[in-house]
Amino acid sequence: MNHHSRLGKHIGSVVILFFLFIVGFKANAQNGQSLFAANCASCHQVNKRLVGPALAGVEERGPWTDRKALHAWIHNPAGFMKTDPYTQGLFKEYGGVMMTAFPGLSEKDIDAILDYIKSVPAATAPVPGAATATNPEASGDNTLLFGILTLILAIVSFVLLQVNSNLKRLADDKEGVGGTEPLPFWRNKAYIAFVAVILFLISGYFTVSGAIGLGRSQKYEPVQPIFYSHKVHAGTNQISCLYCHGNTEVGKQANIPSVNICMNCHMGINEYKGPDKLVDGDGKEHDGTAEIQKLYQYAGFEYGKLWDASKAQPIPWVRIHNLPDHVYFNHSQHVKVGKVQCQSCHGEIQNMNEVYQFADLSMGWCINCHRNTQVQFKDNGFYSIYEQYHEKIKNGTLDTTNITVEKIGGTECQKCHY
């Protein structure tokens, strides 16, 4: 009896240890994926060059075969580059654009990101949180697989407990030891309590997640009155975001373009001849020429004739990005002063046929950005009032690469709520 009992306990211990290992491994991978999405995805993909180089095989390049060198580079790129010719070459190759320093990331966080990069298959390069234009749901999230694995392990655990119970009963019968008939698992109070706790935790998790997500609309992708492809305009034709979204550098709002802005080009372009197919998030292909005709209807324009702009009607574009009324956000302060790229908040807009909300725009997401983003002091009149900082810069006693938005009050409540 003791032998069978010990055997059952050993089997149960092995299953529990295996389960805990899987949970720990998956949690670390998910943590690296979320860190990559929050800090790296706006400039890097794993297998594809973006604003910065592809990160696949990064630990096999230049000085970065040692993770300590990567830690130093990520914490202070400017300081690291002063003595390293490899990163100096990268700086020139990418047009003199300096990588943002991330002093707020711990070495453990960086290692989690590097482990995630190594786990991405070479054939695909999913960017967490940045779904493709044709499938906004596509991402590296394996939550469903993890849930199925957890369920299977739970079933195996119950089966092994039943086997252990039956072995104990058989051993007792053989030795003539009287015992009570084991209860079936659906009447066993321990099993019932275990299942109740598991259900409570699962329902609590989804309840809390749902409550936290109230008011957020990440991946929101509404159907617009005209199928407007940012991939064609901002990507293929390299039209600047600021041409259509005026006031972004000087005002709080990024204006939605009027019919006049569209007609500046489309008075002479009445058909679509681009190489790329116009496919929406549902996989439906659209006729670009027909979409231009929709624009003409709103504009009251007939191709080849003089346009009477007084007949134009506003296009009822559906707004995608909305912040709560109690949040203050100024585009000019970020775009002009902070020199933040549009892709940092809006994702790879130049690769989207249909625009969707890339980031969750939560308070935590904004604060993490402020903790990691360096202040652009050089030739920036906005920061002229920071006399103490400028004096230290002149004296050479202050390294500007270590000053984040957080250090000049970027995480104080009244910055965004007043």
TrEMBL record:
Domain Cytochrome c spans what residues? Answer: 27-121
Keyword Cytoplasm on this protein? no
Membrane-spanning parts: 144-161, 191-214
Q: Which domain of life is it from?
A: Bacteria
Q: Which UniProt keywords apply?
A: Electron transport, Heme, Iron, Membrane, Metal-binding, Transmembrane, Transmembrane helix, Transport
Q: Report the InterPro entries cross-referenced here.
A: Cyt_c-like_dom, Cyt_c-like_dom_sf, Cyt_c_III_dom, Multihaem_cyt_sf
Name the Gene Ontology molecular function terms of this record.
electron transfer activity; heme binding; metal ion binding
Instruction: List the CDD domains hit by this protein, alphabetically.
Output: Cytochrom_C3
> Does the record bear Metal-binding in its keywords?
yes
* Pfam families found in the cross-reference section: Cytochrom_C (PF00034), Cytochrom_CIII (PF02085)
Supply the PANTHER family for this chain: CYTOCHROME C7-LIKE DOMAIN-CONTAINING PROTEIN, LIPOPROTEIN CYTOCHROME C
> Know the name of this protein?
C-type cytochrome
